[in-house]
TrEMBL record:
CDD domains: ABC_6TM_MRP1_2_3_6_D2_like. Residues 87-433 form the ABC transmembrane type-1 domain. This is ABC transmembrane type-1 domain-containing protein. Keywords: ATP-binding, Membrane, Nucleotide-binding, Repeat, Transmembrane, Transmembrane helix, Transport. PANTHER family: ATP-BINDING CASSETTE SUB-FAMILY C (PTHR24223), MULTIDRUG-RESISTANCE LIKE PROTEIN 1, ISOFORM I (PTHR24223:SF443). The keyword Ribosomal protein does not apply.
Length: 439
């Protein structure tokens, strides 16, 4: 089995892929997506203004009957149809050219990466082919190249589309209900500030405890490093106990203690907020508390676990899956080349068992990836429901001060946030896991 890398994908791998794509193609894709979603946002706001014409006409007629006047004009139906048709045509052209340029760019990158891989393999010495299994080389030229050809290009386009759509939705909701964005940014900044302070404090405490433990160990007498007599004569060194202190215990201090302290501070602040609301019995404080809890849940549930846990897990599972596929190709090619010898010694059942074992190991690496996708979907549904709930809540509370069309537009965008968040995090993870093929 090949060597399995761990951790994040090196930025040089992304740089290699983007160099293969080309700077002009990257700029072309980004510009066309910006134009497409900018036109979509503009057309939606124009539709909001168009639907508010009836309300302006009613206000104008009412004020005119009382002798007043309202400076409101409406668009002619023909002009409205012409404007909307032009905007939608330009949007369709921008979407088409964005998809076309991205497809050409991904094909160009795939061709350059394949040629580079082929040239390097052909330039290798014979010792490389003697030490590297044939199945691993076949896996690079089949599975990984296919991933770069099809999967990576598709995930890249989908991630860009969803990311720009979320930016469009954020602009629309913040324009319609700006106080929701202010509350979200404030709570998110406070949450990340608490994360940063607890991370720095936890690291400082871990370093101090490590050096203190090491200093005490180095100053200890030799008799403290040897266990009492075990009854068989002589003592024995208790190295496993010291390894336990320096491994598991310090790992708990590094990771679990800082996380537990952070959650404890958040829970304490939440209890204080609820206590303040109960003492004051003020509706404004209740609304502020609900907005804070919604924003905190959004950042804590959507950003931290999904970007840290799901993406890192999917990336490593993809590496395991890619590594577990090479032995299957290697065993299959070796079986084909030696099929006469296998039949001569009647080893068919043995080779079938080996093949089934390797396929089962590959399935054990593939199944957790599907389970992690279900884990992501359940939690993002909760995040989307919270966003829809509080968007509608603030829209109802702001009745009379905000245009009904803007509230409806914000609600439409909020209803689609769940699916967009799901696909954004999923495509980000898929992009990082499929870039392993370039790695």
């Amino acid at each position: 089995r090949g060597e399995i890398k761990t951790g994040r994908v090196n930025w040089r791998v992304y740089l290699t892929y983007f160099r293969a794509v080309g700077l002009l193609f990257c700029l072309g894709v980004v510009i066309t997506y910006i134009l497409a979603h900018g036109l979509s946002l503009g057309s939606n706001f124009w539709l909001v203004d168009w639907t508010d014409d009836a309300r302006r006409i009613a206000q104008f007629n009412g004020s005119s009957s009382r002798g007043g006047g309202v400076n409101g004009t409406t668009l002619e139906p023909a002009a409205a149809d012409w404007h909307s048709g032009c905007v939608w045509l330009l949007q369709a052209l921008a979407i088409f050219w964005g998809a076309f340029i991205s497809s050409i760019a991904c094909l160009r990158a795939s061709r350059l990466l394949h040629n580079n891989l082929l040239n390097r393999v052909l330039a290798c010495m014979l010792t490389f082919f003697e030490s590297t299994p044939l199945g691993r080389i076949v896996n690079r030229f089949s599975s990984d190249v296919n991933c770069v050809d099809r999967d990576l290009a598709e995930k890249w386009r989908t991630m860009l589309r969803i990311a720009f759509w979320l930016l469009e939705a954020l602009i629309a909701v913040s324009f319609a209900l700006p106080w929701f964005l202010v509350a979200l940014i404030g709570i998110a900044a406070m949450f990340h500030g608490v994360q940063f302070l607890t991370a720095v404090g936890g690291t400082r405490a871990s370093v101090a405890l490590y050096w203190g433990l090491l200093a005490n160990l180095l100053k200890s007498p030799v008799v403290a490093l040897v266990s009492p007599d075990d009854g068989k004569g002589g003592g024995r060194t208790v190295g496993s106990e010291f390894l336990q202190r320096f491994a598991d215990d310090l790992a708990s201090v590094d990771a679990e203690m800082a996380l537990a302290c952070r959650y404890l501070i958040q829970a304490a602040c939440g209890l204080l907020e609820r206590a303040a609301v109960l003492c004051q019995l003020d509706v404004s404080l209740l609304l502020a508390l609900l907005a804070g809890i919604a924003a905190l849940l959004f950042v804590q549930v959507a950003v931290y676990p999904h970007s840290r846990i799901f993406i890192s897990s999917s990336r490593q599972l993809k590496r395991l899956e890619s590594t577990a596929k090479s032995p299957i190709f290697s065993h299959f090619s070796e079986t084909l080349s030696g099929v006469t010898t296998i039949r001569a010694f009647e080893q068919q059942s043995n080779f079938k068992r080996i093949c089934n074992d390797r396929v089962n190991f590959f399935n054990r690496c593939y199944y957790p990836n599907i389970s992690s996708n279900r884990w992501l979907a359940v939690r993002l549904e909760l995040v989307g429901n919270l966003i829809v709930t509080f968007t509608c809540l603030f829209g109802v509370l702001a009745r009379g001060t905000v245009s009904p069309g803007l509230v409806g537009l914000a609600a439409i965008y909020a209803l689609n946030v769940t699916q967009s968040l799901n696909w954004l995090i999923r495509m980000t993870s898929e992009l990082e896991t499929n870039i392993v093929a370039v790695e």
